[in-house]
Amino acid sequence: ELPPSEFMQVADSTWLVLSVVSNGREPSGCQATGVTKIARSVIVPLAEHHVSVLMLSTYQTDFILVRERDLPVVIHTLAGEFDIYKEESGECVPVTCDDVSNGFLKPKPAASPTLHPVQSPQTRFCVLTVAPDTLPAIATMLIDVLFYSHSPPREAGAGNQDLDSITFFSFSLIEGYISIVMDAETQKRFPSNLLLTSSTGELWRMVRIGGQPLGFDECGIVAQIAEPLAAADISAYYISTFNFDHALVPEEGIAEVIELLQQRQESGR
């Protein structure tokens, strides 16, 4: 419904949303959440089969966006590990490999993913939600933060490995569930009794991936971050955007995360 505009860029692909639902068979000792929870079973296998993904972690769950044309490869890749369903008229219908066998092309062997530079700003972030019925009480503040409190984009050269701070605000409304990521200073502008977070109220630090806009054709970017963090059992919330990718990790673990990613980068050279 948006009118064409010279100020709006649109990716040339149509994307489908995958959500991974646990069936309760996970090991009880697994504490990692977010993208690392599905790294080995979903993210890495898709990267190995040359499937480009966009990742969206929310307060409630995680979503993986894949290009519609890649759906046959996605289903063939994941069918051995997961029961796959598609939604039709509000009902979940099982999907089998036979349903998408026509036109399926076996992917070429995957090359090693490019190891993009990572930057870690000093900004501390909160992952929050808000009850839908209280949204009107903060609507004016949300509009102000979303549209009037931004700073001009800063150029991020490949050599700029450490940012003092970063402007980042994410608001998502998915099937009535609201998820917000904001920095700790911005959070102070909102009524504290309306914003809900985990009982521990932890703060998060960010790792931004890419020295320049990444585009949508390259695969393995999410796996580059998720795989080593999953191996170290470190939680991470991951948000892909039009220009960059962003991983949020617990504040107390940021030093270990940076060391892991630097080791991975050096080993790939």
Description:
It is a single chain. The protein is α+β, with helices and mostly antiparallel strands and 269 residues long. The chain has a single domain (9-150, 161-268), classed as VC0802-like (2-Layer Sandwich). It is 23% helix and 23% strand. Strands 6, 7, 8, 9, 10, 11 and 12 form a seven-stranded antiparallel beta sheet that branches. Strands 1-3-2 form a three-stranded antiparallel beta sheet, with helices on one face. A hairpin with a 2-residue loop joins strand 8 and strand 9. Helix 1 packs across helix 2 and helix 5 (221-231) packs across helix 6.
Question: Any descriptors?
Answer:
single chain, 6 helices, 23% helix, alpha+beta, VC0802-like, 269 residues, seven-stranded antiparallel β-sheet, three-stranded antiparallel β-sheet
Please outline what is shown here.
This protein is α+β, with helices and mostly antiparallel strands.
Main beta-sheet strand count, sense and barrel state: 7 strands, antiparallel
The top-level CATH class is Alpha Beta
The CATH homologous superfamily is termed: VC0802-like
Radius of gyration over C-alpha positions, nearest whole angstrom: 19 Å
CATH fold label: VC0802-like
Relative strand content: 15-25%
Mean pLDDT over the residues: 84
What is the CATH architecture assignment? 2-Layer Sandwich
C-alpha end-to-end distance: 46 Å
Low-confidence stretches: 25-30, 156-161
**Global outline:** globular
Tell me how many strands there are. Answer: 12
Number of domains: 1
Count of helical stretches: 6
Which structural class best describes the helix and strand composition?
alpha+beta
H and E order: EHEEHEEEEHEEHEHEEH
**Proportion of residues in helical segments:** 10-25%
